[in-house]
Fold these 4 entries.
Entry 1:
Amino acid sequence: MNSHLTPVNGTPRRRRAARPLPLYTTLDDVHTSAAMDDAAAAEQLIADLLALVDAGLVAPVEDAWGDIRYAAAVDDDDPDAGPHSDDGEGGLSAA
C-alpha cells in the first residue's frame, strides 16, 4: 500500500513549517526613522485639523453610522460661501 498519498488539496508537496519570529525585536534605523516621520506627520495633520475647526472653517459632522467626519463649514445664509447646493451637485461628494 502506498503510504505517500496525495493530499486532498492536490499538491504532493508537504508545506514547510513557518519560521518562528522573535516576539520583541527592534527595527533598523531606516524603519525607525520612517515611523517617527510618519508619527510627526500625523501629529501635524491633527494640529492643522484642530486649527481649521477652531477657525470655523471645518465642522465635525456625524454620518449615518455614527462616525465623526469633518466637512467644510458652510454658512447657509451666504450664497457665496462656497461649492454647496441642496441638490448635491457642484459640492463635495461622498467618496
Entry 2:
Amino acid sequence: MLLFHSNLAPAMMRSRPEYELAEVACLARERRVIATRRVVGWLMNHDYDAAETLIDVLTSLEINGRWVGSAELKNGEVADAYVVAWSDEDWYVKFYVDGAEIVVNVWSCCWDGAVH
C-alpha cells in the first residue's frame, strides 16, 4: 500500500504540533533552514528556487497551514507535518527544529500527494 505524505500512521500521531510556527517563520526569514538532498532535488527538478521556496512555504504556515500530524523520524527527532496553501498549490512540508544548530531541518517539501 502506497501512503501519501499527508497520511501519517495513527500510531505515530501526537495530539499537537511539537514546534511553534512563529519560531519556525522567524528562523526561515533569517535563512536558518537546511533540507535533505531529496527535498532540494525535487524542488529544483520542478523549476523552483529551493532556498526561496523553502522560506516562502515555511513562512506561510502560520496563516495558510494545517497541521496534519507529528512523527518520530529515524534519527529520533520529532517532526511536524503540515499541508499549506502556497503559490496556487497545496504543499506538504515535514520539518523539525534542530535546537543544537538552531535551524529548521526540512525532510519533505512538495506538492501535497506528490511522490518524491
Entry 3:
Amino acid sequence: MATVAINQIPGVAEPLRAYLWEVTFVRTPQGVSFPEGLRLRATSARVPGREFERIELHYLWMTWAVHGRESAAKELELEFWEGVDMAVRNAFMNWLKLVGDWSSGEQANRADVTGDVQLRLLDGRGNPIRTIVLRNATLLSVEAREVRYEANEVVTFTARFWYDYFEET
C-alpha cells in the first residue's frame, strides 16, 4: 500500500507546523547580544491572541451586549534546543542578570531591560507566512528541563517573556 504525503496532492497546501517558528531579537537591552546572523528556531511557541470584555446593558426588558476593553495574555513561552548554540542560552542569562540580581536583590529600570522579539511562522519550504513582533518584551525566566542519565531525549530550555503589545503582519 503506497502512502502519499499531503504536500504531494495537487491543490492542497501543506498544513502549518508549530515547530517552524523563526525567532529574531530585533532590539535587545544594552549589554545583551546574540551572534550576528544567528537564526533561532523555536521548537514551540504560543501565538498571542486578543479578546474583548463583554459588557451587558439591560434596557427595556432586553439585554444588549457590547464589546469592552481589549485584553491579551501578554506572556509568551519559547522552547529552544539546548546545546545547539550555547551563545543563545548565555545571552538569555546575561539578559536575566540585567533584569535583577538575586543575590543582592537589585532590580533594573524596566525601560533598560526591554527589547523587541520577532516571530516568523514559516511554511514547509521556509517561506514566511506570518510575522509577529512583540514590543517591549522583558525576559521573565529561563527554565531548564530535568536531565537524567537514563533519558535519551534532546535537552531543551524554555525562555518566558512578558510584552506590552504585539504587531502582526
Entry 4:
Amino acid sequence: MDTDIKVTINLNKIVEERIKKMSAYRDFAEKAIVGELISSSEIDAIAVKSRSYINLNDTYDAIDKLICEQLNIRESTIEDMVLGERRNNFKKLD
C-alpha cells in the first residue's frame, strides 16, 4: 500500500483561475471584446514557462519547521547549514 502524500499541480488550471481573479482588478474588457484575451495555446505556453518560476523554498522551510517540532529540536540556523551542527557526545561506532 502506497502511503506517500502526493501533490499534483495543474498549472494550466492555475493560469486560467489567475486570469479570472486578475480580471477583478485589471481591465481586460477591450481584449476580451475583440477576442484577443488569451487562447488555450497561450495558456499552455504560460503554464510551461511557469515551471521554471516555481519556488518551493517556502514549502521546504515549512517542512523543516515541522520536522524540528516533531523531533523537539531547535530550528536550523544558517550557521548549521554552512558549518554543520557540532555533536559533543559523538562516539565512533566499532
